């Protein structure tokens, strides 16, 4: 995408107008302020500059331009964000390839077909004699008219060509019905409706368009499969679609908690009861669900799982929890007692469901408890269970303190040696190809707020840059982008205009300008504040460097390289002396 088109979109849009369409903003001098939607706070700390057309949160460190805000708030990739903002700005986006327009037209057609099918099936359910039994079944399951309408639950007539005939009136061809997933072509070339004589639950994408269906038989419908689902199409990928996310996204963001259940009825019943931060996974192929969790990650990293107690449900619980741990989520398990699923529990009492969610146990604690409950204390079977079912999870925990907590819990609770536990964790970690811990590209680096403040100070306040010139280097910035920009700025002795025009640099300068405003324009106070912050910034950098050198020393000693270990120890001592000096004072 040409830079001039992006700039044209920005020029036509007012960032305050766009952000105020999502959250409430208030005038604050020449800028605007709002409560940040990306972390919980009582005092508004998100500041928007209409002059610079950027925003920054002084609470969590997030910031950027209008594209960054919409992308993060709506959980969209760049192309989706570009499309939305281009439409708002009235800018026509060029097609890059000859077939891109045709592909886009096809996607839009498939969406129209599925949306039509959802409306058609819903009308059959609520307005025809054919849907009477299905409607009675749904109401007996406790669903209200409002819920049935909101989710557009429907009924597919027990007719091989009912939907086909309805869409033929819209000049939709038979091959297009197959591409949309609503029709089937058999080996003899005959076409017929995929869903017949079943209750239909539309599956919506993030924006609320129907992209597929799950269809359920009525109870007592013989030997048919209980559920059948839409196939994968150009608009529906089961591994990228969480059922109900379009309805749940705002509640997930506000509560900072995502609850994943196993079935659509569980999800719908919980929403009806007012628990709107709930989604359901699409089918039982949970090992294919990684993309779902990547999409949900920006909404919340706190996840609670509640699956059925049967064999399939427990297998799904384990696979889902494992993937969430790999991606850096904080995972708990909602344990149900004397009921088969969340639907049954919430229909019995919404208070009981709320209590179960509140008492959810940490994912690893759940499996440690299972080891104690299922096997005789100290038995070989118990130790095998720990080794095969629990210890692999510990390799996905990036926080060493949290990992150590569980190691000590297993050592003290099951009478195993700590050395053995750590060796098995290392073994499992080495055999797993998956990335451990949180995705470093998706999390805010520790101290990012401080790093941005320092970078902004170097650009905005020459006297600060001069005061710290001999002490700061690019490696002090842990964030890779800031480190690269700071390196270019320092290398040019503060004369690289390209760095100043970078979006991150503009945001960092905006931070320092806002700090100056809060100090009533007193540059001396600003300099003093920046110097104090620099001490903390440099301390963080020194601690990180010392930790890295200590790891290298341990490796050198293990390899028997005493010369290298001694050399590294000398460097550590130098850094420790600098650290001690900084810890004694925050003045320069």
Description:
The longest helix is centred in the last third of the chain and has 36 residues, at 523-558. The radius of gyration is 29 Å and the shape is globular. Helix content is 54%, strand content 11%. It has five domains: 3-89, Zinc finger, CHC2-typedomain (DNA Primase, Chain A, Alpha-Beta Complex), CATH 3.90.580.10; 100-236, Alpha-Beta Complex (DNA primase DNAg catalytic core, N-terminal domain); 240-359, Dna Topoisomerase Vi A Subunit, Chain: A, domain 2, CATH 3.40.1360.10; 366-431; 448-584. Helix 1 packs across helix 4 (78-89), helix 11 (264-272) runs parallel beside helix 14 (342-348) and helix 17 crosses helix 19. The chain is an alpha+beta fold and 588 residues long.
Labels describing this entry:
5-stranded mixed sheet; single chain; DNA Primase, Chain A; 588 residues; alpha+beta; 16 strands; DNA primase DNAg catalytic core, N-terminal domain
In short:
The protein is an alpha+beta fold and 588 residues long. Helix 5 (100-127) packs across helix 9 (174-180), helix 14 (342-348) packs across helix 15 (350-358) and helix 16 (363-374) runs antiparallel to helix 17.
How many domains would you count in the coordinates? 5
- Average residue-wise pLDDT: 85
What's the CATH architecture name of the largest domain?
A: Alpha-Beta Complex
Number of separate helices: 26
How many strand elements?
Answer: 16
- Global Rg: 29 Å
